UniProtKB/TrEMBL annotation, chains A, B:
<protein>
    <submittedName>
        <fullName>BadF/BadG/BcrA/BcrD ATPase family protein</fullName>
    </submittedName>
</protein>
<dbReference type="InterPro" id="IPR043129">
    <property type="entry name" value="ATPase_NBD"/>
</dbReference>
<dbReference type="InterPro" id="IPR002731">
    <property type="entry name" value="ATPase_BadF"/>
</dbReference>
<feature type="region of interest" description="Disordered">
    <location>
        <begin position="47"/>
        <end position="69"/>
    </location>
</feature>
<feature type="region of interest" description="Disordered">
    <location>
        <begin position="370"/>
        <end position="392"/>
    </location>
</feature>
<dbReference type="Pfam" id="PF01869">
    <property type="entry name" value="BcrAD_BadFG"/>
</dbReference>
<dbReference type="InterPro" id="IPR052519">
    <property type="entry name" value="Euk-type_GlcNAc_Kinase"/>
</dbReference>
<feature type="domain" description="ATPase BadF/BadG/BcrA/BcrD type">
    <location>
        <begin position="86"/>
        <end position="288"/>
    </location>
</feature>
<feature type="compositionally biased region" description="Low complexity">
    <location>
        <begin position="381"/>
        <end position="392"/>
    </location>
</feature>
<feature type="region of interest" description="Disordered">
    <location>
        <begin position="1"/>
        <end position="26"/>
    </location>
</feature>
Length: 392, 392
């Protein structure tokens, strides 16, 4: 299951029978990933092999799953924090409209899960996102997670360990989904996000300006040429950047140019990607705290910036944690959100009809990483690793 | 003449006779410095020794100069750029109100000059600032300069050379006020301003977060403690910072803590200040282009951050330009703005009654650094060093 980034925003894809199953309407799992550079929804009907619960009998075994994918806008950060709930509401409404068109009745949603950027810091109350899911989808069960958690679930497929997610920002989470929750970085483009697209782009633009200014060190003429091609004359750059609300995305938009210059051998660009990889390794290693198995992964589109970055990441991580295994990412944050939605149907801690036969441990809410519907966001249990205190 | 930062916002200080001169009302020079952390106005009556012009006879020789100082708010950057003109209008109105109260008639302003932050990049049209000066002060002659120029005039007292001004941001200008105009850095906290207060503060907060996250390198526990004392619990920092319009100032507000930690021996803080000094030296050296005498200075409150910064600046500059002299700054940007106002009364290129006996060369407008009233902002003469092209 891979994400198709250039999917038609309203495409509904039916892999087998386009009609509803004879035994009743199909039941959907809905997963949403809300990021700094866009949002995505994927919905799939519950496959025959999924464990049903008492309230929702399985669809007929002969039915192949339907699958729907939609794209939406990115979040905006304003004086009240981010508008994740609005983005989720719009995507869900589009899903309902598209699916109702196919089936002549609103879709029946068994579970819906959202992974959202900035959730750990900039959304004061995940309840607004739960409300958006319930009012648009009438979902029985809902989960709202930080994108660091859905990235973790996607990359390690539900296994315990540490995952660094590298997009416009960069954040790592070390967790077993139960007792250990250790976050590192994810502090945004001014305070951290070291090695992320915004970090790489900002350093690339600084190298371009160093060449423009004629500084003694750090300049890159290839990056200056690339930045002028992308942003126009140098004196216009500040007003283009500082008057926009999405500065981190603007900075990150230069990262492909840094990757291209590095691929062409520009020393300054290679150096920037190498430092980015080292930063990401330190972020990842710091999240792999005692109590977790020595398992780690990195995920995110920025890893495609080239071997300068990924090589430095692997070397530095091996130096910091020679005992640990750095495995390839098994899937995307959107895959992780779908995994989370599936876990909701296998038994939760929300008092719903948990399947007694489910071998998986029930999901446990843990603020600010995971909140579950039908209950207020739970405070962090006292036995878990505090995220606000100092590391030991 | 030094700036007193904690002056009463409406204090009018009369150094000698509080009444108008018997030969007529006193004539004022008004100077304004608009910065990222506040704005200041100083006005002084034209001293007896100043060269008068035909339209404005000198005050009686026996009159000692009056002096008035006011403080105002800092600029805000919005979708339309900075609001320098509004800040200037408010300060001038306060000056007129205070001075009218003392003299029972509006002050007669011979010349007014403004140095403003971001003028080179974020104010599309300095004419709005000229209009603010004329409508509030009825000034005969006005000048609107980038703060880099007033810093230069203040630091070198009108001599040719290069000056780096270090406040919330950092910018250097190499100029002889006639043919050579070379700017380096000043690109704002996301693209540059290397070594400035916002740069130091951001790096200090990153060191604090590195300690908080338990990263392998770069952490500082003293800075973590200082940042928690200043900003509260770590998880609240992003929402405090990213929802504010004055992010650079918030970052810069941590610089005194970095300076204090460095003074107490914190290695990470010493390293940050040392790198800041090196960056400033490279910015300054890059502005000292051929055609200028080998004379340079650094100015701004951030230089008080300690010997780690100033020592690194001096050493790195000496290594880059062993032929050049790095002199102590002779005055502040506000002094430079007053110098500029005085130059306006000594003869300008605006078609006014220039004193034929003035030994000083007439002021020449040069966008975006200096624009003069009574004429549209002049395009850069083709014989000067372009600021938008590549350095050679």
């Amino acid at each position: 299951m891979t994400w198709t980034p250039d999917v038609d925003p309203a495409r509904t894809e039916s892999r087998a029978h386009p009609l509803a199953a004879p035994s009743g309407p199909p039941r959907w799992l809905v997963a949403i990933d809300v990021g700094g550079s866009g949002s995505r929804l994927v919905a799939t009907t519950v496959p025959s092999g999924a464990r049903p619960d008492a309230a929702h009998p399985p669809v007929a075994p002969g039915d192949a799953p339907h699958r729907t994918e939609l794209t939406g806008r990115s979040v905006a950060i304003g004086p009240d924090g981010s508008d994740v709930a609005d983005v989720v509401r719009d995507l869900c409404a589009s899903f309902v409209a598209a699916t109702t068109g196919s089936h002549d009745a609103p879709p029946v949603v068994a579970a819906a899960a959202v992974g959202a950027t900035g959730l750990a810091t900039l959304v004061p109350d995940p309840a607004t996102v739960h409300t958006a899911l319930r009012t648009t989808l009438a979902a029985d069960r809902t989960a709202v997670a930080a994108d660091a958690l859905t990235a973790h679930l996607g990359a390690l497929g539900g296994r315990a360990g540490a995952v660094v997610a590298v997009g416009t920002g960069a954040i790592a989470l070390g967790t077993d989904l139960r007792r250990v929750w250790r976050r590192t970085d994810g502090w945004g483009h001014l305070l951290g996000d070291l090695g992320s697209a915004s970090w790489i782009g900002a350093h690339g633009l600084r190298a371009a300006l160093a060449a423009h200014d004629g500084r003694a060190t750090g300049g890159s003429r290839p990056l200056l040429a690339a930045a002028q091609a992308r942003f126009g004359p140098v004196p216009t750059w500040p007003v283009q950047l500082y008057t926009r609300p999405d500065r981190a995305q603007v900075l990150g938009s230069f990262t492909p140019d840094v990757a291209a210059a590095a691929a062409a051998g520009d020393p300054a660009s290679v150096q920037i990607l190498t430092e980015a990889g080292r930063h990401l390794a330190e972020t990842l290693a710091a999240a792999l705290v005692p109590g977790l198995p020595p398992l780690a992964a990195a995920t995110g589109g920025v890893l495609a910036a080239g071997p300068s970055l990924t090589g430095a990441l692997a070397r530095r991580f091996a130096a910091l944690r020679p005992d640990a295994e750095l495995v390839p990412s098994a899937g995307t944050p959107l895959d992780g959100a779908l995994h989370l939605a599936r876990l909701l149907t296998e038994g939760t801690a929300t008092g719903g009809a948990a399947a007694s036969t489910a071998p998986a441990a029930p999901l446990v809410a843990h603020a600010p990483w995971l909140s579950l519907g039908d209950e207020p966001p739970a405070p962090a249990p006292s036995t878990t690793t505090p995220i606000t205190g100092d590391p030991t």
